[in-house]
From TrEMBL, chain A:
The gene is tedc1. It holds the Pfam family TEDC1. InterPro entries: TEDC1, TEDC1_dom. Residues 97-263 form the Tubulin epsilon and delta complex protein domain. Residues 203-215 have a biased composition (Low complexity). This is Uncharacterized protein tedc1. Residues 203-222 are annotated as: Disordered. Coiled coil: none annotated.
Automatic annotation (TrEMBL), chain B:
SMART domains: Tubulin (SM00864). This is Tubulin delta chain. One of its GO terms (biological process) is cell projection organization. Acts as a positive regulator of hedgehog signaling and regulates ciliary function. The lineage of its organism: Eukaryota, Metazoa, Chordata, Craniata, Vertebrata. Coiled coil: none annotated. The keyword GTP-binding applies. Belongs to the tubulin family.
């Protein structure tokens, strides 16, 4: 199984090499070189990868440079990679200076190459450029339709300024007509092209017809060499396209292999980390470029952190919401109780205030039993007896509010006292009623006398 | 790039034959290989036996002229017409535009268009179609208009140039002005450009410059063919970078007739002398161009009798309108001009006189209105020759005369029944008059 996989990987890399070679890149390393780069082996491998990166970046970025020496090539590749956005530590210039070329392993270069390959559509762009190079026949005609004189002349209108609208309109009509004629000319050129192309193709596919015509020899040979060249070009193009197709088929496998390269790089790094502590500069760089140095590890760390943060956030949220809910419930309950108590108190107060002589002294109902509970309250222990305040509900086991001292009174004695008070109050009420009635009768009598009216009590209503 | 010529009617066939004659003589010069090849590709189809076959279609409603032309070319031995590229009938159109347009045209449309299509397919690339005809008769004008309409339908994106021969003002045919008005008004909608030769002008050239005593149609046609040939033969355009222009008709139109209201082109050339006096004549570019410029602004079609008093108006300062009162009497305002120089030392020719903004309409800058082609190859035995194709007011007066005469006849309904019986109504006439009045007004406002 493992063996089969490695064989596959080799095939894939070979197809990639083929594509790169067909794209006209110089210095394409062999599949074996790729394999050795994975294991970071060999000085020559490093060199080959420097060259590969250089030629790829040169084409991709359309840079103009002629690097001959290796150090030139080195700095050039670093710059180009930096320009592409690749931020590995060996590219970055820091206070300690650039990491020397000898320290950059072939695997790092391989990873960089993988990065360049995966970012953007490098191969596609190169393919497009190369196919345009090869396929001259489908190129649009490079005919200059307008002379520079015509191009610049439109500016003159603005310069004259005083042209009236009518003139401008006529001028515009003229220009439009000119454009139409030029379009027609272009069209006729395209038609001619197509016709000539057809002739070339038909004569090349049917050689019997061309030999039957007794055309002059040199003309014919000239034609055939041109044809041969064209055929060669087309063959190269088709090879290129086939190679690309093959690569596209096998591309996923390559990225699997690339993953293994990165993994091995990471495992090496971990070993290194345990062996030697990183310099402070390195740490800074690592912080700046978490992907650059420990790509995968950093990513994992970030992932984990994100996950942790997310779960933490979720927990906090649920807790918060629960708390808020409970608080809400508490508040509601409290309100309900208060409401009920207030209602009760109101009722009580009404029943009490009807006796003006009762004053402010009243009693709170106590739900305690007739037997007092021992050692329960400070107030109890203090033993001071004061008239009870009327505000604030007294709940069992709770001290009410601020500074109000309550006196625990036995219910039986209270009932007796209340009954006495009731009797007294009722008596008083009766007296007052009588006095009022007397007053009213006197008043009505005096009024009625003056008016001479006889008062007849109303008839009871029949239902 | 090739041009397919469609020769229509008696006049069209005669002028066309002369044109191919001139071009074949000019292109036969073996010393100028590139020039000759370019010219041959343009006008001739070379067969396997190295015979030159004109890319031309001959159409007439009478057999006489076509068979004459074919016989004449066969005798010359330098070139010939295609074996199956002509079409003729027994009976003519009777100088009636309506007969040609409404009867003969539709009746023979299929056959004629088949021939044209075959001829077009022989070209590697069609640069344009040139229909040659007169406006006076019935076949050239009527059938010619109908065929142009078919060509426009069949080749909507091709350049179509109509070459028209205008009749003598004194009259060859009684209804020539009707025919002319109907032809011109229809072609103005169909064609991309209308190149006009007036018989009167050419006749004067034959009489005064060529010293021909008894002027025949053949002499007139020769002059026309010479002028046409010197326009259509290969030349180097401003931006061709030393390669002969591939699409003469397209480039001619791009520089002259971009505005759809102005499609009338006229040609004048210098020098034009009899073959006998050519040996004793010496020409310099400054002299030729000075004359040509004056011919342009004073509206004279030939070297003789130029009015040297006419001057270009001085340009008003910017912002002040150039009104009619500022115009000099007799001054010929141009919309666009194309100067073609052929012969020795063309590169030393001073052409700034044609580039002056005062020559042109105020709404088109001079650098756009003027263009020039040139070639060091001399044309038709002239060591030096200059041709001016002009989209200007030159044709305004003859056109106005023509429309005026036709209107006078129409006002008295003379000969109208000859047209209505073929299906051309009085409304059609009125439409034609209206569109030509529009053309006249456009040109007079240049």
């Amino acid at each position: 199984m493992q063996r089969e996989k490695s064989v596959k990987a080799k095939e894939v890399i070979e197809s990639l090499c083929k594509v790169l070679y067909s794209l006209g890149l110089e210095c394409v390393p062999s599949a074996e070189t790729f394999r050795r780069a994975k294991f970071n082996k060999g000085e020559d491998v490093v060199l080959e990868f420097w060259k590969l990166l250089h030629s790829v970046l040169l084409k991709a970025l359309l840079l103009e440079c002629s690097c001959t020496t290796l150090s030139d090539l080195d700095s050039h590749v670093r710059e180009a990679l930096w320009q592409c956005g690749y931020g590995a530590s060996w590219i970055v210039v820091n206070t300690a200076g650039l990491r020397p070329r000898s320290e950059v392993g072939s695997r790092e270069l391989l990873v960089a190459f993988g990065w360049v390959l995966s970012s953007g559509s490098l191969l596609e762009a190169l393919l497009r450029a190369r196919s345009l190079e090869l396929d001259i026949l489908s190129l649009p005609p490079t005919v200059s339709l307008s002379s520079p004189r015509e191009g610049g002349s439109l500016g003159d209108v603005d310069g004259q300024g005083g042209l009236k609208e009518d003139r401008l309109l006529r001028r515009l009509q003229w220009q439009y007509g000119k454009l139409r004629f030029q379009w027609r000319r272009l069209l006729s050129i395209r038609e001619e092209r197509a016709r000539l192309l057809h002739q070339v193709l038909s004569s090349s596919t049917m050689p019997s017809t061309s030999t039957s015509q007794p055309s002059s020899d040199d003309h014919h040979s000239m034609c055939s060499t041109a044809l041969k060249k064209e055929v060669e070009r087309l063959q190269t193009l088709s090879q290129l396209l086939e190679a690309y197709l093959e690569w596209k088929r096998q591309e996923p496998l390559f990225w699997c292999w690339m993953d293994s390269v990165v993994d091995s790089q990471l495992s090496d790094l971990r070993e290194e980390d345990t062996v030697e502590n990183m310099s402070p500069v390195h740490q800074v760089v690592n912080r700046c470029f978490p992907y650059g140095y420990k790509d995968k590890e950093g990513l994992e760390q970030l992932d984990n952190m994100l996950l942790r943060l997310q779960t933490g956030l979720k927990d906090t949220y649920t807790r918060q919401s629960r708390k808020a809910q409970s608080v809400l419930q508490d508040v509601e309950e409290l309100e309900e109780i208060e409401r009920r108590v207030a209602l009760r108190l109101h009722g009580l107060a009404e029943s009490c205030t009807s006796t003006p002589t009762s004053g402010c002294c009243s009693y709170r109902p106590s739900l305690q039993g007739p037997q007092p509970l021992p050692n329960h309250h400070q107030s109890w222990r203090s033993g001071s007896v004061l008239p009870q305040a009327c505000d604030g509900a007294v709940l069992p086991g709770k001290v009410s509010g601020t500074g109000t001292v309550m006196v625990q009174v036995q219910a039986s004695s209270l009932i007796v006292e209340l009954q006495q008070r009731e009797g007294f109050l009722l008596g008083e009420l009766g007296q007052m009623r009588q006095a009022k009635r007397g007053q009213i009768q006197e008043k009505t009598a005096s009024w009625l006398e003056g008016a001479g009216v006889v008062l007849i009590p109303p008839l009871p209503l029949k239902r | 790039m090739s041009i397919v010529t469609v020769q229509l009617g008696q006049c069209g066939n005669q002028v066309g034959q002369e044109l191919f004659e001139v071009i074949s003589n000019d292109a036969n010069d073996t010393q100028r290989k590139v020039y000759s090849e370019c010219s041959s590709e343009r006008f001739f189809n070379e067969t396997a036996n190295r015979e030159l076959v004109a890319r031309s279609v001959l159409i007439d409603m009478e057999p006489k002229v076509i068979s004459q032309s074919i016989a004449k070319t066969a005798k010359s031995g330098k070139w010939r017409y295609g074996d199956r590229s002509h079409f003729s009938q027994k009976q003519g159109s009777g100088n009636n535009w309506a007969n040609g347009y409404c009867v003969h045209g539709p009746r023979h449309e299929e056959v004629v268009m088949d021939i044209v299509r075959r001829e077009v397919e022989h070209c590697d690339c069609l640069a344009g179609i040139m229909a040659m005809m007169s406006v006076a008769g019935g076949t050239g004008s009527g059938v010619g208009t109908y065929v142009t309409q078919c060509l426009r339908d069949e080749y909507p994106n091709s350049f179509i140039l109509n070459h028209l021969t205008w009749p003598y003002g004194t009259g060859e045919v009684i209804v020539q002005n009707y025919n002319s008005v109907l032809t011109l008004s229809h072609l103005y909608q169909l064609s991309d450009a209308i190149l006009v030769h007036e018989n009167d002008t050419v006749h004067k050239i034959c009489a005064q410059l060529m010293n021909i005593k008894h002027i025949s149609f053949r002499d007139v046609n020769k002059v026309i063919a010479h002028q046409l040939g010197s326009v259509l033969q290969p030349a180097l355009t401003g931006d061709s970078h030393g390669v002969y222009n591939r699409n003469p008709i397209g480039e001619l139109m791009s520089s002259l007739v971009c505005h759809p209201e102005y499609k009338l082109l006229s040609v004048c050339n210098i020098p034009q002398v009899s073959s006998s006096s050519m040996a004793y004549s010496m020409f310099t570019w400054p002299g030729l161009l000075k004359h040509l410029r004056q011919m342009l602004i004073a509206n004279s079609k030939m070297e003789e009798g130029i009015d040297w008093q006419v001057r270009a108006p001085s340009l008003q300062p910017e912002g002040i309108e150039r009104t009619r009162s500022h115009r000099r009497p007799g001054f010929n305002t141009s919309l666009a001009n194309l100067l073609i120089l052929r012969g020795k030392d063309v590169n030393n020719a001073e052409i700034s006189g044609f580039q002056h903004p005062s020559l042109y309409t105020p709404w088109l800058p001079a650098d756009e209105a003027f263009s020039m082609w040139k070639t060091p190859v001399p044309f038709n035995k002239y060591e030096k020759s200059a041709i001016l194709v002009s989209n200007s007011q030159t044709l305004l007066r003859p056109l106005d005369n023509m429309v005026g005469k036709a209107w006078n006849m129409f006002a008295s309904r003379a000969y109208i029944h000859q047209y209505t019986k073929f299906g051309i109504s009085e409304e059609d006439f009125l439409d034609s008059f209206t569109s030509l009045e529009q053309v006249i007004s456009s040109y007079s406002q240049l």
